[in-house]
Amino acid sequence: MLTAITGINWGDEGKGRMVDLLSQNYDIVVRYQGGNNAGHTVVNHLGKFILNLLPSGILRPEVVNVMGNGMVIDLAHLCGEIGRLRDAGVAISPKNLKISDKAVICLPYHVMQDVLEEDRLGDAKFGSTRRGIAPVYGDKYLKKAIRMGELKTLPALKERLKGIVEWKNLTVEGAYHAAPVQMEELWSWITQYGGQLADYVCDTGLYLNQAAAEGKNIMFEAQLGALRDIDFGIYPYTSSSSTIAAYAPIGAGIPNRKLDQVVGIMKAYSTCVGEGPFTAEMFGEEAEALRQAGGEYGAATGRPRRVGGFDVVASRYGMRMQGADEVALTKLDVLSGMEKIPVCVAYEVEGIGRVEEFPWGDELNKAKPIYEYLPGWQADLSHCRRMEDLPAEALSYIRYIEEKVSCKIKYVSVGPERDQYVTME
């Protein structure tokens, strides 16, 4: 079984929590795109973990974790993440963590360039996490990137890097008038952190292809959601990688393999970090109450998330982009206690009228939410483990969303702990 776990919306849907849960049935978990610009939060018996780069299966000792060629890896950040998990009692070695030799390294000058550009844009900024993601993906497609496999041939890497630094300084000094990148400092950074990771680097595509041939169960873990995809998201307010399930085999290193299943992750309400159109957004006291109830702050940056009611229009589009076979609905418990629950069922676009298909460009910028309200439930859901434990209003809300997005909801999360979920019949 080759299964992709993907976000239906803007990211932060709770993918890490579901990967941690479902990975009990898988041999391998693969991150196939993105960098440390987002985080997956997992809570288990060892504590609470925020994983920016490591696959969420790393918290299961029997699971092998792979960082695929579609990723961009900040060496210092990864070393720090591994260190924090080891301090918490998580065993990490080349036996349970494998890094693609074709994954690209996010270097300090990528972070610097990201910050310089966001500062230059000012009020027109894209809402970058300032962690170098767009510049490093740009360098990848300009064929100026360094790949993880080059850490095994340091003399050759050093010679190639000299020319790249000279080229990068044309932008750093010439365009931004900033201090130039120093080769000595950069090389010290690479050897310090790269030396700790070189033993993890291998041909993960070969490893995964052999595993698939042997009938191993492989899970592909996405970062962010469909609406942040570089091609199909709310461009230019997107990530710089492909977040959709169809990219999973490519970003993992096995483009010859096909997925058997896609599990889409949706929140029971809407959240969004960063800039860009977010039609269902709520404001004022109502928004702050929802943000506080859900602990809606970015796992990677700590930024307050924008919040709103469940967005049917965006979710239906995200479902189509991801091709989900079934859905996990997370954070239903956060809505407990609300007298009525808002659901954005359509958009009102100036000059056009009611819109039920996800619009683009200026139409999306002008879109206003059209809400319906469903009855809430005055009950704590954290103890629910079976469908019959759920209040009738909560069950009706689940079925309403299921009908609107035309996909079966199989799992419903009612809390952050591993066992706090309900399997729907």
Shape field: globular
Task: Note the main sheet.
Answer: 10 strands, mixed
Rg over alpha carbons:
22 Å
Put simply, the count of helices is: 12
CA-CA gap between termini: 21 Å
Oligomer state of the chains in this structure:
single chain
Largest beta sheet: strand ordering = 9-7-5-2-10-1-11-15-19-20
How would you describe what is shown here?
This protein has 425 residues and is an alpha/beta fold. The chain is built from twelve helices and 20 strands. The mean pLDDT is 93. The strands form five sheets. The protein has a ten-stranded mixed sheet, sandwiched between helices. The protein is globular, with a radius of gyration of 22 Å.
Short description:
The chain is α/β, with parallel strands linked by helices.
Question: Secondary structure elements and their pairing?
Answer:
Layout: E1 2-7, H1 15-22, E2 28-31, E3 40-44, E4 47-51, E5 64-67, E6 72-73, H2 75-87, E7 97-100, E8 104-105, H3 108-121, H4 133-141, H5 154-174, H6 183-197, E9 201-202, H7 204-213, E10 218-225, H8 248-252, E11 261-267, E12 270-272, H9 284-294, E13 306-308, E14 310-311, H10 312-322, E15 326-330, E16 340-349, E17 353-355, H11 361-366, E18 368-375, H12 392-405, E19 409-413, E20 421-423
Parallel strand pairs: 1-10, 1-11, 2-5, 2-10, 5-7, 6-8, 7-9, 11-15, 14-16, 15-19
Antiparallel strand pairs: 3-4, 12-13, 16-17, 16-18, 19-20
